[in-house]
Amino acid sequence: MGGRKGRSFVATLLLYLVTGAYAGFMAGLLGVGGGVIIVPALMFAFTVQGFADGDVVRMALGTSMASIVFTSLSSMRAHNARRAVDWTVVRRIAPGIVVGTFTGAQLAAHLPALALKVLFVVFLAYIGMQMALDYRPPPLRALPGAAGMTVAGLLIGALSSLVGIGGGVMTVPFLAACNVAVHRAIGTSSAVGFPIAVAGTAGFIVAGWNAPGLPTASIGYVYVPALFGIVLVSVFFAPVGAWVAHRQRALVLRRVFALFLFAVGARMAAGLV
Asked: Structure pTM?
């Protein structure tokens, strides 16, 4: 019995390490946040482990958010070292981000699991189309005032927590449309990802604190063994992906990733019917 449990623990840990390596590599290769990779991978892993159907998607979202706390810190430091973070923008959008992300996590805890899965599939399709078409919003206006930045933060934060991502795929286009230079928009988005991840993690922990039947080693809807395995290796594989990316054409990589997202979305959609 003890030997079987030991082998099961090793197999489970290996699964999380592979997920972290894959997420880190793809994030470095394609310049996207790991949440788009981590959430479907964790949904698969948690299903294989036999987690309750109603908890699988929430645990995947919460654990993904927690992992982004660590990866966003690394990204933020790198961009800040290159003076690519506009801290004035971060301070202006952060209040809305924090409130929106925490509220979105509470909403995710009460939405039916099927609704969350459908939302994630639609989100994958949206990101896939954006990548495939290489869409970049035209710079049409200046940054809005305090009220507009708060509303933008609320929307970006809420959707980020509902799909378990760091928000870069929404923050960068928003800032670019507001006449922020692309490299500065990306750097600023990396800094915005940190409060999104912290608030989202707190929200999923609070929402799942007294939830019945959660697996051992969970803190609310954050599954610590998966978090440990992902963070442990993703930081090492992201530079490998970046190294490969610099030897390939960016547009080709974006379209390959779009095909990957469509495939993942189609596989998840097939499971809904």
From this structure: 0.83
